[in-house]
Amino acid sequence: MKRRHLLATAALGLGLAFGGAAAAQDKTKACFVYVGPIGDLGWSYQHHQGLLAVQEAYGDKVETAYQESVPEGADAERVLTQMALSGCDIIFTTSFGYMDATNAVAKKFPNVKFEHATGFKREAPNVSIYNARFYEGRAIQGHIAGKMTKTNKIGYIGSFPIPEVIMGINAYYLHAKKVNPAVELTVVWAMTWFDPAKEADAAKAMIEQGVDVIASHTDSTAPLAEAAKTGGKVIGFGQASDMAEYKPSPRVTSIIDNWAPYYVKRVGQVMDGTWESIDSWEGIASGEVELGEITDAVPADVKAEAEAMRDAIAAGTYHPFTGPINKQDGSVWLAEGATAPDGDLLGMGFYVEGITGDIPK
Amino acid sequence: MFGGIDPGLLIASLMVASVPILFAAVGELVVEKAGVLNLGVEGMMIMGAVTGFITAVQTGSPALGFAGGALGGAVLSLLFAVLTQVMQANQVASGLALTLFGLGLSSLLGQGLFGIKPPLTPDVPFGPLADIPFIGTVLFSHDPLVYLSVLAVAGVWAVLSFTRAGLVLRAVGESHDAAHALGYKVRRIRVLAILFGGAMAGLGGAYVSLVRVPQWTDGITAGAGWIALAIVVFASWKPWRALLGAWLFGGITVLQLNLQAAGSRIPVEYLSMSPYLITILVLVIMSSGRGRAALSAPASLGQNFHAAR
Hints:
The complex is a heterodimer of chains A (361) and B (309).
Chain A: H1 2-23, E1 28-33, H2 43-58, E2 62-67, H3 74-85, E3 90-93, H4 99-108, E4 113-117, E5 127-132, H5 134-148, E6 153-158, H6 163-179, E7 184-189, H7 196-208, E8 213-216, H8 222-228, E9 235-238, E10 251-257, H9 260-272, E11 279-282, E12 289-291, H10 300-315, E13 325-326, E14 332-334, H11 342-346
Helix pairs in contact in A: 2-9, 3-4, 5-6, 5-10, 7-8
Chain B: H1 7-33, H2 41-59, H3 62-86, H4 91-109, H5 135-139, H6 144-162, H7 164-174, H8 176-181, H9 186-212, H10 224-234, H11 239-261, H12 268-287
Helix pairs in contact in B: 1-6, 1-9, 1-10, 1-11, 2-3, 2-4, 2-9, 2-10, 3-4, 3-9, 6-7, 6-11, 10-11, 11-12
């Protein structure tokens, strides 16, 4: 008797839960998965700013939820499944490593929309991919690095050897080399997106070897904090977020990821039913990639050149990967005047000519 | 110079890199010597990191910041002490819970601290000594906490080996029933050991947020507490070996980044896994053959004690 009673209660509870889900249908639920803590002041922080913008844009009509520091791998699949079950209408997975998990879970929940950042797989009709052309910002950073370095050694802290990062390294190097043929690039792979102590150590190792301009592709401000200890001898760039607290030096400018317009647009499309699976890759022109203020630590002429390059990229008159460009092994990648097709960039697995070292497999 | 790497600078930076795990490991070593297994090191470290950061920013004094960090770690460990020594809760579960709680609480306390820079911790002024080539770089160019970490190892070693207090602590860890029969206050001693462990972990955490990465971000310790726990086992509960372990681990981490920066031809994958590989290797060597006896853990490790039982 008792057991039956229990079952009945459970059934009732289940019914209530479903009823609750049904009642919540008029509210659109947007969910976000972050790879780091929202307090990283970098990558995940910027995505969270996007969530806040969605909340502000739609107010009561939208409900948001997020989970931070979700490891890339099996855990991600579990988190995504849970989110889909909890009534999310659209789920943004904001790191490259969620690619397979996103597609796997999307197949199981055809009614939930999935948006995967920085990936290249769309295996289900309810998966979209979106990215920003960060390499455009990297090109400008490279120009500044080439002009500013006194030791002719510039550095790049890589996270993982994925096209996204390799693209950044190549753009950075090409534009430094263009203005300073003597420049040498040192790449250190941290093999993590977020580990402040390790990022600081990587920056320190570079500084000890004479590198005086450091760009980083990891998520914390630790490399800038390390550069700040040198008292102005070493400069760096804000990554993902403005990192304005390190102005005017070592942070001389920054790449700011502005996801808010995209998130607001896409959540709006879910609301009015016009959402479609797309492959979005916008850059400086549409405002997804912003260049942070160039500080006075940069000479006025260099600043003017950097801003001119930004404007040219925004106007579509200049592509950061314009030939002639050779691959590291000397073979031709882009002929004179040719610009890189998006497909080449999204699958980029090689360094351009002049960079030493190998990309980890 | 070996391929662009200056050995003096390398040794100096490995000493700095291992300070947080060394503090935490030495503290945990004392806790485990008293027979308590506290898996909450990561939680206590990050609490120390945030409370130390807050104190240093509020007072403008790095020294007070470190004191605040130690206090923060100790206060959190008090929770563990109450759970396991008073309420007789399971130590493994309580320790894991302490880590999760510490991570969450630190994140809460750290709201609004983003972007603030803490006061700089100055190096100990050794004057002309610091200018001696190599030796000056390695020995005389650090902040006070680096020296304190080595002193802590020496102090723990001396107390455990040569003093009555150390003997009692070890007795409690080896056989709490025998120690109780002799009239020692097992629980009180264990609570004190836990508090010491918490303070040391907190100090290590404060070093991360005040010196190594002078800023606050969520999850700043990024797993250092777990490495400290592993180093205690690696050290087979001997303080000097904990120093060796911490330097070895910190050293290889720094070395692999330096090798990459110097353009070494060794693939990055091997370099990245090398700290862990070498740790495993040393563990295997130490636990084989005659060394096996030396690996013995305190006999009452992880067991709760109740006088009425």
